[in-house]
Amino acid sequence: QAKASMAWHTEVYSNVEVRVTSSASDVHEYRVNPERVNVSLSGRPETMDSLTKDDIHVTVDLTDLVATQGLVRKRLEVAVPPGATLIRVSPPDVEVVFPTHSDSKP
User: Fold this and answer.
1) pTM for this predicted structure
2) Rg of the chain over CA atoms, in angstroms?
3) List of residues 6+ apart from 103 with CB closer than 8 A
4) Whole-angstrom distance between the N-terminal and C-terminal Cα of the chain?
5) pLDDT given for residue 89 in this prediction
């Protein structure tokens, strides 16, 4: 017979902010869509009970991105605390929107 303490729990954390990583010399103002995602984690109850969405770090790495006009899709990277296992991030990627030159004022 299985012990209840051995059971793993799965939690869904909604509206986790996507953080953009770009090189220090990059002055582009990228936007990502969506700006927030849902993250499903699994872990022991004692681990999951203490987690908040602030413990989950979702980033999109734009350091190697060449600025173009239009849309580019980039896969998200998710860092979770020790004891938690990433089940799913939804959506798994975001659209990177580059500012168009027509948006800037002289």
Assistant:
1) 0.80
2) 18
3) none
4) 72
5) 97
Cα–chain-centroid distance for residue 34?
10
DSSP letters, 26-62, are -----EEESSEEEEEEEE-HHHHTT--GGG-EEEEE-
Q: Is the torsion defined by CA of 46, 17, 62, 72 positive or negative?
A: positive
Is residue 24's pLDDT more than 90? no
Tell me the backbone φ, ψ of residue 74, rounded to 5 degrees: -130, 140
**38, two tokens:** 């849902």
State residue 106's pLDDT score. 44
Q: Are 79 and 72 in contact (CB under 8 A)?
A: no
9, 71 in Cβ contact below 8 A? no
* Separation of alpha carbons 34 and 15, rounded Å: 10
Mean pLDDT, to the nearest integer, of 17-34? 82
Please report the pLDDT score of residue 105 as a whole number: 45
User: Residue 19's beta-bridge partner residues?
Assistant: 59
